[in-house]
Amino acid sequence: FWLKSFRWFLELGFHPFTSICCYLKRLNKMAVEKNIKDVEGKSGLQEKKAGFMSVLVGNPAASIFLIFFGIHSGMNVVPYYLVIAGDLAAQVWGKSMTFYLVIFDAIRLCLGVMFAGPFGSLGDKCGNYLVVCIMLVLEVSPIISTLMLGRNEAGLISFCVLRALAGITGASLTSAPCMYAYSHELVSSREHYRLYTALIYGVTCSMTMGFFIVARRIDVAIGPEGMLWLGVALCGLQVLMLIGMRLPCMQPAHRRNEQETPVSAENMGQVESESSYATDSPLEAQTTATAPKRSVLSWLRLVRENPSLLRVCIIAMLVCMAEMV
User: Fold this and answer.
1) Which residues, at least 6 apart from 111, have a Cβ–Cβ distance to it below 8 Å?
2) Where are the alpha helices (DSSP H) in the chain?
3) Is 247 strand, coil or helix?
4) Strand partners for 172
5) Comparing C-alpha atoms, which of 315, 301, 313 is closest to residue 117?
6) Pick from 66, 117, 78: nearest CA to 291
7) Do the Cβ atoms of 89 and 222 come closer than 8 Å?
8) Which listed residue, 89, 128, 143, 187, has the most CB atoms within 10 A of its CB?
9) Nearest-angstrom CA–CA distance, 265 and 260
10) Which parts of the chain sit beneath pLDDT 50?
């Protein structure tokens, strides 16, 4: 049991593809910082260095959403790997199990590549909070369908089909892009958000590991259905967390001040500069204003404009291929 748990920890924390993604994030961060310094010059705003505790204390809603990341990853990974791929698919499809699972996973990933951009633009129009709620419904629907139809061929097919359709959210092991977009709204400063993204990765991997251990205990005590009900319970907990994050007391301090203090014409500019860090850089403001419209074929434009990114993705695919086979 502990050897299997340690194996899951290695796969979650030291996956080669994850390492490459972290390397790409680091390169992107260095490039953005260099461009910001070039635009702002020596007169740029020097933000106060923040620690992990100041990030959690100063952003209560973001702290709750940090746990949301870990719970969401556990809800997605545990039922699929322990109930579907680890048991039900073998019983129904036998030796063809891997073939069918790969087909459904390929469909899910292709839908993520094509529709993650349009799904994210829905958050720009209707708000990222609503998009996160829609994403949660799509991600929990396979578990509910399997509980309703039973652990049989119909339940297996419904799980795989609904899980593939949920790929339009672009969700992966480290959660969906819309969740990162919503967390960006909950954090009060750019410096805090840089530390927050590091916390997301650590909390997600650690909590997912813990859910695997809990799910194994539930499997011994109740059976595979217990692990499916665990996924539903985790979804209900996420709903309560989303409701709690909307409370005024959970908002960052500067947003609570905006709601309590009426804004006049004299201090309008001051409030805007204090309450938003998403556009406090001329570079980011220009990028936001000139951002292309996202569509199903946006990924083709991205690949054409960034050939080096395509090469890195191909390398990542080759590195992961041996492990997946």
Assistant:
1) 164, 165, 167, 168
2) 2-13, 16-40, 52-58, 60-78, 89-93, 97-126, 128-149, 153-165, 177-186, 190-221, 224-245, 253-260, 268-275, 282-289, 298-305, 307-324
3) coil
4) 175
5) 301
6) 117
7) no
8) 143
9) 16
10) 14, 42-48, 263-290
How far apart CA 267 and CA 288 sit, in angstroms, is 25
**Which tokens belong to 119?**
């799904």
Q: Which residue has 């748990």 as its token pair? A: 5
Q: Which pLDDT belongs to residue 46?
A: 41
Q: In angstroms, how far is CA 92 from the centroid of its own chain?
A: 31
CA distance 105 to 287: 34
pLDDT number for residue 9: 53
Nearest CA among 184, 218, 173 for reference residue 75: 173
| CA atoms of 129 and 133, how far apart (whole Å) | 6
Q: Provide the residue count of the chain.
A: 325
> Over the stretch 201-219, which tens digit does the pLDDT of each residue have?
888 888 888 988 998 888 8
Q: Which residues contact 96 (CB under 8 A, 6 or more apart)?
A: none
Q: What is the DSSP-derived secondary structure letter of residue 172? A: B
The neighbouring-strand residues paired with 175 are: 172
Q: What is the DSSP letter of 51?
A: -
pLDDT at 291: 54
Q: How far apart are CA 249 and CA 245, in angstroms?
A: 9
CA distance linking residue 8 with residue 12, whole number of Å: 6
Supply the pLDDT for residue 42. 42
Q: Give CA angle at 320 (315, 324), nearest 5°.
A: 150
Torsion of CA 183, 188, 194, 196, to 10 degrees: -50
Measured CA to CA in angstroms, residue 191 lies from 220, 292, 304 at distances of 45, 27, 32
Which residues are CB-contacts of 252 (< 8 A; sequence separation ≥ 6)? 58, 59, 60, 61, 62, 186, 187, 188
Helix (H, G, I), strand (E, B) or coil at 175: strand
- Chain centre to alpha carbon of residue 220: 30
- pTM higher than the cut 0.85: no
Q: Are 185 and 131 in contact (CB under 8 A)?
A: no
